Pirin family protein (Sphingomonas ginsenosidivorax), 288 residues
Amino acid sequence: MTRSVPRTVLRQYPAQRDDIADLVTRRPVPGPGLAQVDPFLFLNHHGPQVYAPGNRGLPFGPHPHRGFETVSFILTGEMAHRDSGGHDSVIRAGGIQWMTAGSGLIHAEISPDSFKRAGGPLEILQLWINLPSRLKMTKPAYTGLQREDIPAIAVPGGVVNLIAGTFGDRSGPIDSLTGVTMMTVTLDAGAQVTLPAPRGRAVFFYTVAGSPKVGETRIKPFHLATFDDAGDTIDVTAEAPVTLLYGHADPIGEPVVAHGPFVMTTREEIGAAIRDYQAGLFGPAPVV
């Protein structure tokens, strides 16, 4: 049996505060010194905060995307999704929304009327995952999963919520186009867990809450950690409660040309995306 080797933390990147209207927002990537963790392009951490009754809800009305995938993690509260492909769902706390923008669609991420009336706590993560050039024009797709649809795998002193890929002998419900593994991890004080980090794969490690130790390095709250590629595991210790967003994937290694909601590999492709959107080829905008 081959002995596992833990990876070493290279650097930590703080999430930059960048509120959107009254929505508390932190963004660790892209940020100063870190353009991406290929293929992970972008993470917004919204909240945690409490909305008062009679609020306006989330500010993300209809807007287009092309060339990548978005994954939204509803940690508390709820979020409605509607898109030009006819998908319409409300995902509650503990659920996720996995959307393949592919060749292009228009979607809205809004608060349902019940949340706007009653208010309540809200915390949401949204991660953008790049697609290789051969898949950028794939057919758009959407999957919404509630908490009960996601395997909650017990580990000593914690839980791994497995969304895509594998953990031990378990598989997540999302079969990613590019073999991405993605999970959230919650640990109680005193817990230790070893997370898989296969050699050659890019690791995405963000501290949603708490300050875990990886080996002898303490990762600060709201920080993204990068790692060397000299091992195949990440050893995490929680001295106090911790929540992590964790995943790994094969790097794509292609140029990234981004313009607002479009991520392609050339400026010419960006121009085509803008023209196609303006020509109505992404379908009808959802009614909100």
Notes: The two ends are 56 Å apart (CA to CA). Residues 113 and 181 are 33 Å apart (CA to CA).
